[in-house]
Amino acid sequence: MARRNIMRNSLRSALACFGIVIGVVAIASLGILGFTLQAGFMDNMGDVANQIEVTPASGGDDPMGGTPTEDTLSDRDVRDVRQAAVGASVLPVKEEVVEIEYGTSSVTRTAYSVPEPDALFDAEEGRVPAQMSSGVLVGSTLAETTEVNVGSAVTVDNSSYRIVGILEEEPWTAPLNPNFGIIVPEGELRDEEYSSVIVEDESAEAANSTAQRIDESMNRRDDVVEVQESSEMIENIQEQQRLLNLFLIGVGSISLFVAGVSILNVMLMSTVERREEIGVLRAVGVQRTSVLKILLAEAALLGFVGGAVGVAFSILIGGVINHFMLEDALMVFRPANLRYLLTAMGFAVGISLLSGAYPAWKAANKRPVEALRG
Amino acid sequence: MILELEDAVKRYDSGEETLTVIDGVDFGVERGEFVTVMGPSGCGKTTMLNMLGLLDEPSEGTVRLKGEDVTGLDERERTRARKESIGFVFQYFYLIPSLTAEENVEAPTVFSGGSGGRAAELLEKVGLGDRKDHKPNELSGGQKQRVALARALVNEPDVLLADEPTGNLDKGTSKRALEQIRSVCDEGVGVVAVTHDERVKEYSDRDVQLDDGVVV
Ligand SMILES: Nc1ncnc2c1ncn2[C@@H]1O[C@H](COP(=O)(O)OP(=O)(O)OP(=O)(O)O)[C@@H](O)[C@H]1O
Ligand SMILES: [Mg+2]
């Protein structure tokens, strides 16, 4: 009966359904978009959350007129960091601008040296040795632009090396990011001092307290070092993404709300139109609750059909988004995304019921004599 | 008496004025009795029928169904009483346009398990066996009237209330409709027909005149 009544005003019902479809698509696909952005980000950045970067305190001149701060860290600074960061691996980094020759061309890039490079990096090709002696590692972007391969020879500031590995692309949140540069064996760089110290801890939480300890022990009198946690940066970004997500879902909710208003309109119109029929049914002994039920069933059906079509579209759109951002369209079926789809569906039926409730209640409670009087 | 009004008064408040449409009516119908209520248009026939049929409450007075006072019942109980005991044939039939003849007849029963084939039987009985699947807009006035009669009987009522049963029908069709109502009455159902059509009287056991809100 509910279905037949909807069919009778198929155009108007279709329009209301269409509103619901748009609302659901808005909520679900914006939700999926937000989640996909987040997931894409976590894929890249998640594994550096346990790293801390200690750099010389910047700030040029000391405002108190003391000695200008240095822009490198000494062996003593590194020792201090080690003392504060017990239990974590402490990796002092040197860095220097060098001339890299390969084949017949050359580029000017930054060379880094770090003990235990295998703790920080993975190889795209070749391997990352625990201890570097005579080979070099090439950053991913540099390898792409120069088209060098594992095994070929390069010259760094007039010393010859063999390439032992090409690095995977490092996220930009990583404290040490050699994408554009090259990693050379320790002792190959002339500089005595260190540009930064990377501290790698067990977890993001451990890194957090270690960072605090380093800051407290080294910056007691003067700001000697700057301590930056990757996790903090990641958290900031995540927080922003959460806000973005909320905003996107908010936009979706508004469209669903508008759809609800159009359902309200459809239901009001159709109950006014059927005033007489409802009056007859009531007169021949159909209870108010039965009338209410059938009208609510109509509203729910509108919402359900609209919601189902909307979910189908959202899966399609989500698949496209995931295909382009995560290179796997099927990622749209992840539990978190399914939750968005379910929520949107629930909203669709819920809002339809809610906006159908008033007209239905009104129609069911009209006295039959009034409904039947011309 | 199966259904009766006792000293019933119906007033309508329209702004400043109060219009007294029914002014102290005593009226009743027995099982198997056919009573005609005559009166000119606008004299309050439909109003009286609505009170008898528990669609409207009298401003004063009592309505009794099978000897029981049903004046103060709440909406739910009145709806149940209508369903169990009263069949209506409305002045303008009021068939539901989206439903077929059979579905229209079945409508009073759909929320309580259907009529179990009784709807089709009743349509056969009123001579519309071959029109079961037609929509109201595919039926003539007389055929609609018969569908309305079948619908009124689907719940096996004790009383049948008919408002202008011949109102929109020609002479031959009216005769057929009245014969059918008469046969319903002969099966033990009390019938009240309100009309301004003198011919209805010929089929009834008793007739009363409604004038200026009182039965004479
Ligand atoms: N809800 C109402 N409010 C005010 N006046 C009403 C209302 N319902 C009916 N009336 C008045 O009551 C009077 C009787 O109306 P009713 O419909 O009972 O007449 P009737 O005898 O059935 O007429 P007809 O033969 O034309 O059907 C009319 O004058 C009408 O204007
Ligand atoms: Mg009337």
Major sheet strand order of chain B: 6-7-8-3-9-10
**Radius of gyration of chain A, whole Å:** 33 Å
Please work out how many helical segments of chain B DSSP would assign: 6
Give the chain pair forming the largest contact, with residue counts: A-B, 21 and 27 residues
String of helices and strands of chain A:
HHEHEEEEHEEEEHEHHHHH
Shape of chain A: elongated
Walk me through this protein's architecture.
- The complex is a heterodimer of chains A (374) and B (216).
- Chain A folds into two domains: 2-44 and 235-373, no CATH class; 51-230, no CATH class.
- Chain A is built from ten helices and ten strands.
- Helices cover 54% and strands 17% of the residues of chain A.
- Chain A has a six-stranded mixed β-barrel with strand order 2-3-8-5-7-6.
- Chain A has 374 residues and is α+β, with helices and mostly antiparallel strands.
- Chain B is globular and about 50 Å long.
- Chain B has a six-stranded mixed β-sheet, sandwiched between helices. A four-stranded antiparallel β-sheet of chain B has the order 2-1-4-5, with helices on one face.
- By secondary structure, chain B is an alpha/beta fold.
- Chain B is built from six helices and ten strands, in the order βββαββαβαααβαβββ.
- Classes of the chains: A alpha+beta (374), B alpha/beta (216).
- The A-B interface holds A 1, 4-5, 8, 276-277, 279-288, 290, 367-369, 372 and B 50, 53, 55-56, 75-76, 79-80, 82-84, 86-88, 90, 94, 96-99, 107-108, 110-111, 151-152, 155.
- The site of magnesium ion has 4 residues of chain B, from α1.
Task: Describe the secondary-structure layout.
The complex is a heterodimer of chains A (374) and B (216).
Chain A: H1 2-8, H2 10-45, E1 51-56, H3 75-84, E2 89-102, E3 105-113, E4 123-126, E5 135-138, H4 140-146, E6 153-156, E7 159-167, E8 182-183, E9 196-200, H5 204-218, E10 225-229, H6 230-273, H7 275-283, H8 288-325, H9 335-365, H10 368-372
Parallel strand pairs in A: 3-8, 5-7
Antiparallel strand pairs in A: 1-9, 1-10, 2-3, 2-6, 2-9, 4-7, 5-8, 6-7
Chain B: E1 3-14, E2 17-29, E3 34-38, H1 45-52, E4 60-65, E5 68-69, H2 75-85, E6 86-89, H3 101-106, H4 118-125, H5 141-153, E7 159-163, H6 171-186, E8 190-195, E9 206-211, E10 214-215
Parallel strand pairs in B: 3-8, 3-9, 6-7, 7-8
Antiparallel strand pairs in B: 1-2, 1-4, 4-5, 9-10
Bound molecules: adenosine-5'-triphosphate and magnesium ion.
Residues 45-46, 91, 163 of chain B line the site of magnesium ion.
